[in-house]
């Protein structure tokens, strides 16, 4: 299309002036979108900046490029190439506030680098390798750092810090959002108050009969499959899922008895993988939720939770379970809105089952690969709970057993359930946060990766990559260590670097129940069974099978159990 006689009514720009105009708009666009590095931008301004404006700016350029289509092609190509160039140059330039921190060049430029790394499920290995190469502070995104030192633990979980931007990706378009996704400390604390009541020492004491019943059922299932090859990780997963179903909805799951016949456990695990990818690029989340398949999964899980919640509410319970506390059934002020309980119910099942399964599976793997440690643990259990005098169900006694607790701590150290994605950020309006000698500007996300910290020689020496429960014991330095082939080791263990349950206002609210659960399961199974890896199983496959999808997903743990007592 060639303009005719009215071309004098339009401003006439040279090609150079057209280019300057479009590059200027690209710079303005960058300034606008810079504040949406993590949070999703609004739809209509986005369309205006990225689509409408470049088309409008092509109009004065028609005279310089003869036809409308050539002008539009030039405007869009120059606009997007300029926007990309400005973004990349700024992010790697000395003008960026995180410029001085080392890290992979592509990580500085784009979060798609993190997405590609997360897609492998091996994020924890990649983070460990980066910290080994670059040091305790690594730039892992345009506005994101990974800090592996105790200063980050102390300051990162302190006042003035909120939950990190990755939690934006865990806010599906269904209100209300789960308590774990609430980033602001005040709102988080308000919603968490019911959770705190559900996990007091008194409340956990009321859960013990349900826990004992489920642990006994687990033993019965394992005894029925003794002397044959089984996947121990699978049975532990069924146990934790059943127990959390009891705690949240008064039962009804019965995976140990019936298996995952409805496929809901598998469905939850696949959903966790999708969310783990979305969290690397939070601004993509609103787009992803508009995809019917992705939204359909959330709707299905929510419908499932609604069904169980209604059944529990109608049925009632003689036990003050977690549902009782979340629903606020004792209060004269009235019940908590059911949609909140439904949303948090899903959280309780996933968070309470997957994390404990991971921890228990790892502990039994390490005990089988370290028979001397297993022998020492069994001796402590048998001495405390003689086999012919009853099962190790007394939680107070279990809590006082040094070696049992050392074994659990060491398992959690080497295989934390959330290996990398413990993220915090300075609260809006604070300007930033001082972490050790470094000032972290507002708008910067910091990851405090437990997997890296827990294997750091500065905090756990010697042999930070080795399973040595004795490092958690108070004992003379000249005492022989029975679980390793080394004598007279003096351990240096910095408990402040041990964060398997995160920390601060958003730490794991159910950690005390999880520890009680782990003590009882480990003590009973070690006393009841001799364990060995199934014939032909390569022990190295276990750690190779571990995948980081925010929460660790383990592979099979093929074992053969034989009854002892």
TrEMBL record:
Pathway(s): Secondary metabolite biosynthesis
Transmembrane portions of the chain: 12-33, 45-65, 71-90
A GO MF term: monooxygenase activity
List of residues binding heme: 508
Name of one Pfam family that matches: p450
Highest taxon listed in the record's lineage: Eukaryota
Signal peptide: none
Cofactor(s) in the UniProt record: heme
InterPro entries per record: Cyt_P450, Cyt_P450_E_grp-I, Cyt_P450_sf, Cytochrome_P450_monoxygenase
Keywords assigned by UniProt, alphabetized: Heme, Iron, Membrane, Metal-binding, Monooxygenase, Oxidoreductase, Transmembrane, Transmembrane helix
Family per similarity comment: Belongs to the cytochrome P450 family.
Protein name per its UniProtKB record: High nitrogen upregulated cytochrome P450 monooxygenase 2
């Amino acid at each position: 299309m060639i303009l005719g006689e009215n071309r004098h009514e339009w401003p006439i720009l040279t090609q150079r002036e057209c280019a300057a105009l479009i590059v200027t708009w690209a710079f303005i666009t960058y300034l606008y979108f810079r504040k949406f590095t993590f949070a999703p931008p609004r739809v209509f301004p986005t369309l205006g900046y990225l689509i409408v404006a470049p088309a409008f700016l092509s109009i004065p350029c028609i005279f310089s490029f003869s036809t409308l289509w050539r002008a539009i092609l030039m405007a869009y190509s120059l606009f997007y190439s300029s926007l990309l160039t400005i973004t990349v140059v700024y992010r790697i330039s000395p003008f960026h506030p995180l410029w001085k921190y080392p890290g992979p060049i592509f990580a500085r430029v784009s979060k798609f680098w993190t997405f590609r790394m997360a897609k492998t499920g091996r994020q924890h290995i990649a983070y460990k390798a980066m910290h080994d190469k670059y040091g305790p502070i690594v730039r892992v995104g345009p506005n994101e750092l990974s800090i592996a030192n105790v200063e980050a633990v102390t300051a990162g979980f302190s006042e003035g810090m909120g939950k990190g931007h990755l939690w934006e990706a865990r806010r599906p378009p269904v209100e209300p959002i789960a308590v774990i996704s609430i980033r602001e400390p005040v709102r988080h604390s308000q919603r968490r108050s019911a959770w705190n009541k559900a996990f007091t020492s008194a409340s956990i004491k009321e859960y013990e009969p349900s826990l004992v019943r489920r642990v006994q059922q687990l033993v019965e299932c394992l005894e029925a499959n003794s002397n044959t090859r089984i996947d121990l990780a699978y049975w532990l997963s069924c146990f934790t899922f059943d127990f959390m179903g009891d705690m949240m909805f008064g039962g009804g799951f019965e995976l140990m008895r019936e298996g995952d016949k409805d496929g809901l456990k598998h469905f939850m695990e696949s959903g966790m993988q999708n969310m783990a990818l979305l969290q690397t690029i939070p601004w993509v989340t609103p787009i992803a939720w508009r995809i019917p398949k992705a939204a359909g999964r959330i709707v299905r899980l929510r419908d499932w939770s609604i069904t169980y919640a209604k059944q529990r509410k109608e049925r009632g319970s003689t036990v003050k379970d977690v549902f009782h506390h979340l629903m606020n059934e004792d209060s004269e002020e009235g019940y908590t809105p059911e949609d909140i309980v439904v949303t948090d119910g899903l959280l309780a099942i996933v968070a309470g089952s997957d994390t404990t399964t991971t921890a228990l599976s790892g502990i039994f793997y390490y005990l089988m690969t370290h028979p001397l440690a297993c022998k020492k643990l069994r001796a402590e259990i048998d001495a405390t709970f003689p086999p012919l005098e009853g099962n190790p169900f007394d939680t107070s006694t279990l809590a006082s057993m040094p070696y049992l607790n050392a074994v659990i701590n060491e398992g959690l150290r080497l295989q934390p359930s959330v290996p990398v994605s413990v993220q915090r950020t300075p609260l809006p309006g604070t300007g930033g946060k001082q972490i050790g000698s470094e000032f972290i500007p507002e708008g910067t996300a910091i990851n405090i990766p437990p997997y890296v910290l827990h294997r750091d020689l500065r905090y756990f020496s010697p042999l930070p990559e080795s399973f040595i429960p004795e490092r958690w014991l108070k004992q003379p330095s000249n005492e022989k260590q029975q679980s390793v082939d080394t004598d007279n080791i003096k351990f240096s263990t910095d408990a402040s670097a041990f964060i398997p349950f995160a920390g601060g206002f958003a730490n794991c609210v159910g950690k005390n129940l999880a520890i009680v659960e782990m003590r009882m399961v480990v003590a009973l199974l070690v006393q009841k069974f001799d364990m060995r890896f199934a014939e032909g199983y390569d022990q190295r496959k276990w750690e190779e099978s571990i995948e980081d999808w925010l929460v660790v997903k383990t592979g099979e743990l093929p074992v053969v159990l034989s009854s002892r007592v």
